[in-house]
Design brief:
346 residues, alpha+beta, 5-stranded mixed sheet, globular
Length: 346
């Protein structure tokens, strides 16, 4: 398998199974990174959710939820999968945040008392600020500003008490009880590995370890237990994944922090090292990316009624044609009129 075929197959695996429903798109992606809500909406759009109302509808209906999972990062997942996925990462996430909770005054006593009180406060969706206000009314003494509220919500999530649902105000997520969900798979790590390989493959066990945050030994075991097949030396997929069809380039304008851009340990084939800092700007920032047939070709931004693309190199006529159609689709999803502007490569 040469580099071009590898990238085509990865692009098709990630974006070639379009679904109009947010829960199905999230499942097919093994979860959508969601620490930035507008970016998560764009991630769903890129994976076939064309209706701009669908992401919010799915959250309000309890079909999808947002909670800290892989690498301790917020992900949007189907509600049916939330509990078994949480079971894979809760202890790890709790341990990672223990020191910071102590620094923020979230003692074991405060956290335990919050776990006792929170279920009765979730009779309706509530904002984080409102929950902290209600908890402080019971004498918990949580600092309402700064990072303490977020870390307390993360602690409660890891204990299966709550998660994020639909917004209760613009850019203000609401917290709801963690749904009961469906039955857990017999081997949750293997189930997650299978979903990862279906969405990102062909990929290595080390790629799955990086994306998930699981130890490499456990990642290797899970890949084997998922029934993975070797598509090339050291690169695995799962049976039944269709090869990409012939045709014009598949072009996507991806939002910030998109799974596809950060889902591999070795990204040199898709993102040449000389351009890596244009995407990973430092401080944990991952910029919106222009991707065509598995290669990151530039970055983009919205600016005064325009969608501005900064390519790393001149774009082919076929990519430009696909980019024009993709720009129109993004504008329709955002419900704004946008003009495509392509800068000269810097």
């Amino acid at each position: 398998m040469d580099e071009e075929e590898l990238l085509l197959r990865r692009m098709h695996a990630q974006f070639g199974r379009p679904s109009g429903r947010a829960a199905m798109a999230a499942r097919a992606s093994a979860g959508v990174q969601a620490q930035d809500a507008p970016a998560a909406r764009l991630a769903l759009r890129a994976r076939g959710v064309a209706d701009p109302a669908e992401p919010g509808r799915a959250l309000a209906a309890g079909e999808t939820v947002v909670l800290a999972l892989m690498r301790g990062t917020l992900h949007l997942v189907p509600a049916a999968d939330a509990r078994w996925m949480l079971g894979l990462f809760a202890d790890r996430n709790l341990a990672a945040g223990a020191r910071r909770r102590r620094e923020l005054g979230l003692t074991e006593e405060v956290c335990a008392r919050a776990l006792d009180l929170l279920p009765d406060l979730l009779d309706v969706p509530r904002s984080r600020a409102e929950l902290v206000r209600l908890l402080n009314g019971q004498g918990l003494g949580i600092e309402p500003k700064g990072q303490a509220p977020a870390h307390l919500m993360g602690f409660a999530t890891a204990h299966g008490v709550l998660c994020r649902g639909a917004d209760v105000a613009p850019r203000e997520p609401g917290y709801v009880p963690l749904p009961a969900g469906g039955p857990a798979p017999a081997d949750p790590a293997a189930e997650l590995a299978g979903r990862y390989l279906a969405a990102f493959g062909p990929a290595a066990a080390a790629d799955f370890a990086l994306w998930s945050g699981l130890p490499l030994r456990e990642a290797r075991r899970a890949v084997a237990a998922a029934g993975a097949v070797e598509a090339a030396p050291g690169l695995f997929t799962v049976p039944g994944v269709e090869p990409p069809p012939a045709g014009p380039p598949t072009v996507r304008l991806l939002g910030a922090y998109d799974n596809f851009v950060i889902g591999y340990r070795d990204r040199d084939a898709m993102l040449p090292p000389e351009f890596a800092r244009r995407i990973n700007a430092g401080g944990g920032i991952v910029k919106p990316a222009l991707v065509a047939d598995g290669r990151v070709l530039g970055v983009w931004r919205r600016e005064k009624g325009a969608l501005v693309v900064e390519p790393f190199a001149p774009l082919s006529a076929a990519v430009r044609e696909g980019l024009a159609a993709e720009t129109a689709a993004v504008g329709a999803f955002l419900q704004v009129d946008v003009e495509l502007l392509v800068d000269r490569p810097a």
